[in-house]
Amino acid sequence: DELVQMAEAKLQVTLPPSYKKLLKQQNGGRFIHNAHPAPQHEDFDEPFIEVEYIAGIDQNDGILESEELIEEWEMPKGLVLFNGDGHTWLAFDYRETSANPPIVYVDNYDEVPQVIKIADTFDEFLENLYTVEIEPDEDIEGYSPVTYNKEEFENMIEQDDVESLYDILNNDNYHIDAEEDWYIGKLLQLSTHHDDKIRTSVAYNIWNWYTSELDNERLNQF
Fold first, then answer.
1. Is the pTM of this model over 0.90?
2. Which CA distances in Å does 141 have to 11, 46, 136, 138, 145?
3. What tens digit of pLDDT does each residue of 163-199 get?
4. Which residues neighbour 216 within 8 Å (Cβ) at sequence distance 6 or greater?
5. Are β-strands 114-119 and 103-107 bridged in parallel, bridged antiparallel, or unpaired?
6. How far apart are CA 27 and CA 29, in angstroms?
7. Is 114 exposed, middle or buried (0-12, 13-18, 19+ CB in 10 A)?
């Protein structure tokens, strides 16, 4: 509640109740329903907009970065960004209101950013979300997926190969060919590793990928 009050005071807006409700469940993170229908517009080749995550609130992070990012990318003032990578963003559009904002998609690829409304409210935005399987784009220059099997991963743990373990835990182009339950068991083992960055990486993986899938016993173990 204090973070929400601080954010609303700083941004001088009223955040949507459904957004605040989500933050009380988890203050930012990835969505299981990771796609929103794309509007009929020449900018969209795919039928959906990928929604990897939703930003939460921190003292100088999450949606409170909006002002700085808007200035950096020369976007219109009055947007509160909750998803994006620089070239494209999803945002609450407060340019003409201080409450109940529509949701917009911002395209920065052109010289002048395009702002395209995709939902009238955040509730509508959430209702429209659905799940799609999004494969990594293997045509991206420098993308070279690497797959490790169980034995290789076990050897890295036994040999305490910190750098290799860290790379696997933090890079999307590394993959462990193993059952999910087996891999989660190894993450539990690594959660007490002596190296701080390994423990942090395990926490990140659990928080962003598996929290909603684990039973209470596993969650309590972590």
1. no
2. 39, 21, 12, 8, 12
3. 999 988 988 778 888 898 899 999 999 999 999 999 9
4. none
5. antiparallel
6. 7
7. middle
